[in-house]
Amino acid sequence: MFRWFHKLASTRNFYRLSEILSPWLSVLCALLLGAGIFLGLFVAPTDYEQGESYRIIFVHVPAAWLSMFVYMVMAFCSLLVLVWKMKLADIVAEVSAPIGASFTFLALATGSLWGKPMWGTWWEWDARLTSELILLFIYIGYMALRASIDNPSSRSRAAAILALVGVVNIPIIHFSVDWWNTLHQPASIMKFDKPSIHPSMLQPLLLCALGFTVFYWVLMLIKSRTLILERESKSSWVQERITENRL
Length: 247
What we know:
Blueprint: H1 2-8, H2 11-43, H3 57-84, H4 87-119, H5 127-148, H6 152-166, H7 169-179, H8 199-231, H9 236-246
C-alpha cells in the first residue's frame, strides 16, 4: 500500500495517470450533469411551497458541497506537505484553491438569487451565509498568501499552515443551522433517519452533486498537469515529453 502511494505521489506518474483519467472523467461528468440538469428542470415536479424557484438547488447545493469538499482536499494535502513535504500535494492544494473559491462564490450567488423571492432579501447575516462568506475570504487569503511569497519552500509551508487553520470553519458551516436559529433551512439530505426531500427531487440533486464533484476532479487534474510542467520544466522526463511531442 505504501509502495503504491509512493508511486502515485511521483509527479511523473501522476502526470501520466492524469492524462489517462481526464478524458474518461470528462465524459462521466457530462453524462452526470446532463442527466441531473434534465431531470431537475424538466422531470422533477414543482415544489408546493417554493414553486419553480426551488430548482436553483440543483446548482446551489452541489456548489455549496464542493466549496467545503475542495477545502478539505486542500487541508489534507497541506497536512501531507507539512509532514512529508510532498511536492504533488502542494500542487494539488495550489490548483484547488481557485476552483474551491469559484464554487464558494457560485454557492453564495445562487443562494442570494434564491433568497430574494423566499426571504425577501438578497443577503442576510445568517450564520450559514456568513460562515460561507468567511470561507470565500479564506480561499482568497490563501491564494494571496501564495502570490506574496517568492521562496517556494516558505510559500508552501505558510499556505499549508493557513489551510489547516482555516479548516475549523468547515464544521461551523455544516452545523450552523443546528447550532443557531438561522433563516437558512436545516439539512434535508444528510439526515440520520432519511432525507426530507422527495425522491423525484433527490435523484437529480444527487446526480448534479456527483457531476459537480467529477467536474472538480477533471479541472484539478488538468490544472495540476499544467503546474507540474511549469515546476518540472528542467527535469529530464519533461524534456523527453517535449521532444516526443515535437516529433
